[in-house]
Amino acid sequence: MRRRSSVLDFDKWNKWRRSLDRIRIALDNLDGKRRIHCEFLDILKKNKKLHRYSGHPFFEWTFKNCTVCLMIGIRRLVDLRSNELNLYKLLLDIEENTQHITVDTYVRSCFPHDRNFSGNQLSEFRRAKYYGDAAKAFKEAFGRPRKTLTRRDVIRDKQIVEGFAKQYVERFVSECLVHFDKESKRRRYEGFTIRMVHECLDTLIQLHNKYAVLLRSKRLSVHKQTLVSLWDEVFRLPWIE
Questions:
Q1: Strand, helix or coil at 96?
Q2: Which of 65, 78, 86, 94 is the most exposed place for a label (fewest CB within 10 A)?
Q3: What is the CA radius of gyration of the chain?
Q4: pLDDT score of 30
Q5: What are phi and psi of 85, to 5 degrees?
Q6: How does pLDDT run across 11-66, given as a tens digit for each residue?
Q7: Are 97 and 142 in contact (CB under 8 A)?
C-alpha cells in the first residue's frame, strides 16, 4: 500500500535534519578554530613586546595553517564529489523536493506530540499557536511572511555557494594545496586574503541557520559558543627555561 505523502514529508525532514546536525558540527568546529586564531592575533596585537616579531616564521606558520584548515573545511562542505551529504549536496536535494518544506509540514513535524494531529482535531487555540510559530520561523528565514519554500529560493542560495565557495575556495584548495603547483600557487595567492575565507565561512553559517530555522522548531546558531577550554592558558607559562 502506498504511504501517505505526509509520511514521505517526515522521512525527508528527518534525513535533512540529520544532515544539518553533521553540517552544524563541521561549521562549529571551523568557527571554533577561527576564533582561537583571532584571539591569538589579538594577544599579539595587545602585547607591544611582541610587535618586533611580527614577521617571525612561527607567526607566519600559524597564520598559514589556520587559513589552510579553514579552506579545506569549507571545501568539504561544498564538494559535490563527497560521499557525505554536505551543505551543497543538501541544497541540491532540497531543490528537487521543495514541496516538502511548507508551513503545514513544519507544524506537523515540529509538534508531533499532539495526538489530535492524527484526527485533525486541533483546537482553534492550539492551531493558532502552532501555525503562529511556523509563520515566525518562515518569516525569520526569508525576512518576510512566507508559507512555502520554492525552487527559486534554493537555487538562489545554491548560487551563493557556487559563486563564493566552489568557484574560489574549492578551486584554490585543489590547485594550490591538494595538487601543489608553484606557478598556480604564486598566481592564486595574489589578491587572496584571510578576510575572504572569513566571509565565505560566515555565508555558509548563515545558510545553515536559514535551513535550520525551516527544518527545526528553533534556531541552531553556531555563533558565539563558549570554548570548552582556556586555550590561551599555555601562554601564561614559560616555554623554555
A1: coil
A2: 65
A3: 22
A4: 92
A5: -85, 80
A6: 888 889 888 888 999 998 999 889 888 888 888 888 888 888 888 899 888 888 88
A7: no
* CA pair distance 199, 45, nearest whole angstrom: 22
Q: Are the CB atoms for 44 and 59 separated by under 8 Å?
A: yes
SS3 at position 148: strand
Grid cell 597564520 in the structure block, residue: 63
HEC string for 24-42:
HHHHHHHHHHHHHHHHHHH
Parse the chain into domains and list their residue ranges.
5-101+149-225
Locate 53 and state its grid cell.
Answer: 616579531
Distance CA 46, CA 41 (A): 9
Residue 147 C-alpha cell reads as 508559507
3-class state of residue 84 by DSSP: coil
122: exposed, middle or buried (C-beta count within 10 Å: 0-12, 13-18, 19+)? Answer: middle
Find how far residue 147's CA is from the centre of its chain: 24
Inter-CA distances, 97 with 92, 103, 110, Å: 9, 15, 19
CB 24 within 8 A of CB 225: no
